[in-house]
């Protein structure tokens, strides 16, 4: 019966009282686009472009890049497609962009930081994106720590004539200063995987500290709340694209915190769509408030669910 109930909810993401929450897919390469379309994704909230650069010593050609980006735009002609620029280093090492050996790769030259050393790689990627740019194309940078970096990236996007530039909020300094990072960009997207890792100083690849990397930790909810509030004051969209958006109760809590879109693996879309459809925005807000008032992740989870009766 539960299966039927999940697939019975169709159409765009929205709460029971009609507040729209576009539900987007996290996509790791062109092969995953069909599943995202089939699952009813309204667009792509995170197109991870590492697949183009992995396992090779030469960068992909311009045509190879253009065709990969075109594939995503063609899969979602009416929707937003958020393409993230290369996020190499740390948990995504790339043979062709060598960085000196580092004692703490998660704190080293990774993500946008690699483009300081290899600006030609960023130029080529933004150029390929500009060449296929269509209405829904949004380009965002990973691992942005400061407002200066947001300005640098936004200017590089504008110089190529890209229609929309954004940054990920996945470092606590970026969440703390979200209002300033928002100024030069058109949107932001919260990456809760890394945001948790850096907030709790708990390596996402070390299972012994995995219990700390719990997105229900009230401190993480505070960082999401502060970021969403800054975006709403600026009148700019704020998504969540970390794995945590795939948790139906947490998706409701993020909605209650003011997040405007949710992006997740395609397999999670039906359950999240159903959870939102079963609760009003007010219930989501209360669930969020109750969760943030708790002292532990376990209690936050329980407290939120008390306001989300539709989750069973
Ligand atoms: C994140 O950090 O939450 C995120 C979405 O990016 P990735 O998992 O690719 O680092
Ligand atoms: Mg990340």
From TrEMBL:
Its main location: cytoplasm. Keywords: Cytoplasm, Kinase, Magnesium, Metal-binding, Phosphotransferase system, Sugar transport, Transferase, Transport. One of its GO terms (molecular function) is phosphoenolpyruvate-protein phosphotransferase activity. Residues 12-278 form the PEP-utilising enzyme C-terminal domain. It is an enzyme of class 2 (transferase). Its cofactor is Mg(2+). It is found in: Cytoplasm. It catalyses: L-histidyl-[protein] + phosphoenolpyruvate = N(pros)-phospho-L-histidyl-[protein] + pyruvate. It comes from the Bacteria. Transmembrane segments: none annotated. Belongs to the PEP-utilizing enzyme family. General (non sugar-specific) component of the phosphoenolpyruvate-dependent sugar phosphotransferase system (sugar PTS). This major carbohydrate active-transport system catalyzes the phosphorylation of incoming sugar substrates concomitantly with their translocation across the cell membrane. Enzyme I transfers the phosphoryl group from phosphoenolpyruvate (PEP) to the phosphoryl carrier protein (HPr). This is Phosphoenolpyruvate-protein phosphotransferase. It comes from Nonomuraea purpurea. The chain holds residues 240 to 551 of 555 of the full protein.
């Amino acid at each position: 019966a539960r299966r039927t109930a999940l697939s019975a909810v169709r159409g765009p993401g929205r709460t029971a009282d009609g507040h729209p929450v576009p539900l987007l897919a996290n996509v790791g390469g062109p092969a995953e686009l069909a599943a995202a379309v089939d699952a009813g994704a309204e667009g792509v909230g995170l197109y991870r472009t590492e697949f183009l650069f992995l396992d090779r010593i030469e960068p992909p050609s311009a045509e190879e890049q253009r065709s990969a980006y075109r594939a995503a735009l063609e899969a979602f002609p009416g929707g937003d497609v958020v393409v993230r620029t290369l996020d190499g280093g740390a948990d995504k090492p790339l043979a062709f962009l060598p960085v000196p050996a580092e004692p703490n790769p998660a704190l080293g030259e990774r993500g946008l930081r690699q483009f300081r050393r290899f600006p030609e790689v960023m130029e080529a990627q933004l150029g390929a994106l500009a060449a296929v740019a269509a209405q829904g194309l949004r380009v965002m940078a990973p691992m942005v720590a400061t407002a200066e970096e947001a300005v640098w990236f936004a200017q590089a996007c504008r110089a190529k004539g890209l229609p929309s530039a954004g940054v990920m909020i996945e470092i606590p300094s970026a969440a703390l200063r979200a209002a300033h990072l928002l100024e030069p960009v058109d949107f932001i997207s919260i990456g809760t995987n890394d945001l948790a890792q850096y907030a709790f100083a708990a390596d996402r690849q070390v299972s012994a500290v995995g219990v700390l990397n719990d997105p229900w930790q009230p401190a993480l909810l505070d960082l999401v709340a502060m970021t969403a509030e800054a975006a709403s004051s600026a009148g700019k969209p704020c998504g969540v694209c970390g794995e945590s958006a795939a948790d139906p109760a947490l998706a409701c809590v993020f909605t209650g915190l003011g997040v405007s879109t949710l992006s997740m693996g395609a397999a999670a879309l039906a359950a999240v769509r159903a959870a939102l459809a079963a609760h009003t925005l007010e219930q989501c807000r209360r669930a969020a408030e109750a969760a943030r008032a708790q002292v532990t992740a376990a209690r936050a989870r329980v407290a939120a669910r008390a306001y989300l009766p539709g989750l069973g």
